[in-house]
Design a protein that fits this description.
Layout lengths: L2 E6 L6 H14 L4 E5 L2 E2 L8 H9 L3 E4 L2 E2 L5 H8 L6 H12 L4 E9 L11 H8 L3 E5 L5 H14 L7 E6 L5 H14 L3 E6 L7 H7 L14 H8 L2
Parallel strand pairs: 1-6, 1-7, 2-4, 2-6, 3-5, 7-8, 8-9
Helix pairs in contact: 1-2, 4-5, 6-7
Length: about 240
């Protein structure tokens, strides 16, 4: 899969750290990787964004953005308030396609959830995935409430004919509660797709070398890692 779109069921749930883990694991497997942030919000012109954070953690990736806006809002709102041109799905798809001619893998990270609007016309990351005919990896929280948002997002992907290869838990707590442990069995059921990894909480605070050596152990073989969902679920079973 030369392009993989990475979305989440909401914001602040670990999309960037999962993107970094996927990138680090692919790099360790000998692949060249580019990371494209569709719309970066909430950062100033000279501040590091999510793509640069992925590069810091994962190492030698090409980091790129299509657009950035200063306020931490949905891209369409942030663009309007800043008086800047919005990002369009076709802009993102064209940038990703160009990167795919020069890299083995292009990771396209969205902003917020799947249907967060990029522009006044209602363009979203789902439209980007459709234009690219790319699979969409879904990052989800571990705990209570995640089953509803996971199923809603998975249903939307299927309704659009988009492929969901699997789900990754963006931040697995050191001391998971009952809901989180039960969700290991329930998430694949509601998503209709396998659990492909669980990134430990606080992973972004690791030194980059430690992050890179650990990342393959957080992701399943389908993402070129060594993580085993069945073993993990048995260990964490309620």
């Amino acid at each position: 899969m030369p392009v993989l779109v990475i979305t989440g069921t909401g914001t602040e749930i670990g999309k960037t750290v999962v993107t970094a883990a996927v990138a680090a694991t692919a790099l360790a497997a000998g692949r060249s990787v580019a990371v494209l942030k569709a719309a970066q919000t909430g950062v100033g012109p000279d501040e590091p964004g999510d793509a640069r954070e992925v590069a810091r953690l994962a190492g030698g990736v090409t980091a790129a953005e299509v657009a950035r806006y200063p306020e931490p809002l949905a891209p369409a709102t942030a663009a309007r308030r800043a008086g800047l041109a919005p990002v369009r799905p076709r802009d993102v798809a064209e940038a990703a396609a160009k990167l795919a001619t020069e890299h083995d893998l292009v990771l396209v990270e969205g902003a917020g959830g799947l249907l967060v609007r990029f522009d006044a016309a209602g363009g979203t990351l789902a439209d980007v995935a459709g234009l690219l005919d790319a699979p969409v990896l879904l990052v989800v929280p571990a705990g209570l409430g995640t089953l509803n948002t996971t199923e809603l997002t998975a249903r939307e992907l299927r309704s659009r004919g988009l492929h969901l290869p699997g789900v990754v838990i963006g931040s697995w707590p050191e001391a998971p509660d009952l809901a989180a442990r039960c969700n290991l069995a329930d998430l694949p059921d509601v998503a209709g797709a396998p659990l492909l990894g669980a990134v430990p909480a606080g992973a972004a605070a690791l030194a980059p070398a430690a992050f890179r050596s650990s990342a393959p152990h957080w992701l399943a073989p389908r993402l070129e890692g060594t993580w085993d969902a069945e073993v993990f679920a048995r260990r964490e079973a309620p």
